[in-house]
Amino acid sequence: ILNVEQSPQSLHVQEGDSTNFTCSFPSSNFYALHWYRWETAKSPEALFVMTLNGDEKKKGRISATLNTKEGYSYLYIKGSQPEDSATYLCAPTETSGSRLTFGEGTQLTVNP
Amino acid sequence: NAGVTQTPKFRVLKTGQSMTLLCAQDMNHEYMYWYRQDPGMGLRLIHYSVGEGTTAKGEVPDGYNVSRLKKQNFLLGLESAAPSQTSVYFCASNDRKGETQYFGPGTRLLVL
């Protein structure tokens, strides 16, 4: 079982603020890193899958970077909106298998 | 395309009863997964399957059995339910190792 840490656990920001979260994971045997967005009472939805060191992905106001050598990824949200309120999960997978190991997530609340 | 579906949506069991949760996907995916979600614990992998007729244990397999007799279906069984199995159960699938997993809507199980 991989040790996956996400910080902070929760975050409250005002509408329009930009914010970022961190995901730390073991750098050995790295295969891919997933980010998911999980709204209350719904199921997780994929944001990004990242595989290469230095990778940067963007979807609208959300972007993510990946450092596989040191074992971390950042997720950024620019100009947060109330609809961005959700729990953001990261999940690395190793080369040996098909399993994701999910972190506990960062719960984001954007106040209007 | 219905994607990933789960039945039932909600169930109440008494301690010692048995039940089967059904996950079905219409995307012809090879890999399927069962997770449980508990407060403060994130998503934890119970069992998974890398193809029809195969199953493997995840992080928390005790008290559960699974079967993958057909490629599109992945069944999760509880032979003798315990209150500790009260949780929300999510099924997911994907086509290849490391790729995005698509989640079902979840099954809420309460064991009294």
Question: How would you describe what is shown here?
Answer:
The complex is a heterodimer of chains A (112) and B (112). Chain A contains no helices and ten strands. Chain A has 112 residues and is mostly beta strands. In chain A, the strands form two sheets. Chain A has a five-stranded antiparallel beta sheet, with no helix packed on it. A five-stranded mixed beta sheet of chain A has the order 2-10-9-4-5, with no helix packed on it. Chain A starts with a strand and ends with a strand. In chain B, strands 2, 4, 5, 6, 9, 10 and 11 form a seven-stranded mixed beta sheet that branches. A four-stranded antiparallel beta sheet of chain B has the order 1-3-8-7, with no helix packed on it. In chain B, a hairpin with a 5-residue loop joins strand 7 (65-67) and strand 8 (73-78). By secondary structure, chain B is mostly beta strands. The interface between A and B is medium-sized, with 22 and 25 residues.
How would you summarize what this structure contains?
The complex is a heterodimer of chains A (112) and B (112). By secondary structure, chain A is mainly beta.
Total of DSSP H or I helical runs spanning 4+ residues of chain A: 0
Oligomer: heterodimer
Summarize the largest interface: chains and residue counts.
A-B, 22 and 25 residues
Gap from first CA to last CA of chain B: 36 Å
Low-confidence parts of chain B: none
Classify the secondary structure makeup of chain B into a structural class.
mainly beta
Characterize the largest beta sheet of chain B: strand count, sense, and whether it forms a barrel: 7 strands, mixed
Number of strands of chain B: 11
Helical segment count of chain B: 0
Shape of chain A: globular
Report strand % of chain A.
Answer: over 45%
Global Rg of chain A: 13 Å
What coarse outline of chain B follows from CA principal-axis ratios?
Answer: globular
Helix content of chain B: under 10%
Helix coverage percent of residues of chain A? under 10%
- Strand percentage of chain B lies at over 45%
